[in-house]
Every structure is written in structure tokens, then in C-alpha cells.
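Researcher: We're reviewing a set of sequences before deciding which ones to prioritize for further study. For each one, I'd like a predicted 3D structure that I can look through quickly. This is Helix-turn-helix domain-containing protein. If possible, include the structure in C-alpha cell form so it fits the rest of the review sheet.
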Amino acid sequence: QYYHQIRGGAMGSPLTLTIANCYMFFFERNIVKQITNAGGLYLRYIDDMFIIINWPERHLNKQIDQWNTLDSNIQLKAQAGQSINFLDIYIENINADLFTKVYHKPSYEPYYLPFNSVHPLHMKKNIPFAMFLRAIRYCSTFKAFLDEREDLRMALLLNKYPGKFIDSQFNRVLKKCNITQSLNKEEKLPTDHYRTMFIHFTYCLNIRTLPTKFHTLW
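Model: Here's the predicted structure for Helix-turn-helix domain-containing protein, in C-alpha cell form for your review sheet.
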């Protein structure tokens, strides 16, 4: 017997991901327009959406119910609140500032490819390199980064990775990110505030005025 697939795509097929992205592109157009007109931020990774908008939760749920009528094949479920987990990142709204760090699922176990395995060396290098790079990209505070880095270091040591090997991959990440200042509390160099100026500017509708305000400060 032959079967004709009329919904969805074959798992593992490289074409399925492309088709899914194309499908979502046309599905989300009205949603993106609505969020943008309301001054919000809309992002998507395949079929996971991330929205920042100043709406009451009741209004958001009402809008989601309306969006679910756009296509019977796509039904959205919302996770709304002051803090959420989006893929592998934790995001929290703290007094209108976004705090982010790496998110680990409750089922997470610190087991990686053992260093004493017979796998090629480049695979063992990529594991700590990718994890340290993710920590730098995801952690919005220095403390969150230090906590994540120490957890990663302990996990790698448990999997028989030598300390010097771990440090060498961490230095690779620093070089890739063009970071020349030490990222250790004890070794952190003092900032010369006569030569360096830090400006905090929260994301909002007035982001377009940043150049003007910066010019005034400078």
C-alpha cells in the first residue's frame, strides 16, 4: 500500500525544516504587524515565538485565541510572566531590565563526551568551546557568567577533562570575542572612568532618540 502524507513533514528530512520556516513566515505576518504596531518585539526560532510587549496578560491571552483561528494546523500556547525559559536561555524582567542566563532543564545531567574516549580531539575541543561561548553570549551579568563558568568547569572535570585543556578552550573563546580584559573577579582590571563612559539605555519606544541623547552626553 502507498500512503500520501497531507499534513506535516518527514522527521529528519533537511527539506522539512525549510518548509516549516516558510510556512511560519506566511502564518506570522499578521502577528508580526500587530506586535510591531503596538511597539513590541517579536522573534521566532522555527516554531518557538518570543514576544516582548506591554500588554495585560488577559489581553495577550485573548489575542492568542484569535491567532489560533488563523490556521487549524497551528495552535499556540503561551508562557507569560515576569520570567520565562526560551529554548536554552532564562529571561527575567527585573524592574524593566532584562536579566538573562543559560537555562538548564530539570532533567539536565552534567555528562559530556569523556575526555578519555577514542573520539577525535577536535570534538573534545568543541565541547568546552561551545559551552563557554554560550555562557558569554547568554549571561547578562558578570555574576551569572561566573556561576555558569564554574558549573561548566566542574562538569568538564567530572568528565576527565584536564584543567589546562579547559583553560585553553576558554582562552579560545576570549580570543574569538576579542576580550583582552581578564574575566576573573580577582584579576579584573579597574575601569578608567576618565577615558570610558558607560550609558544605560533601556529598550523602549524612545530607542530612536538614543543618538541625540548620546551626543548630548558626549
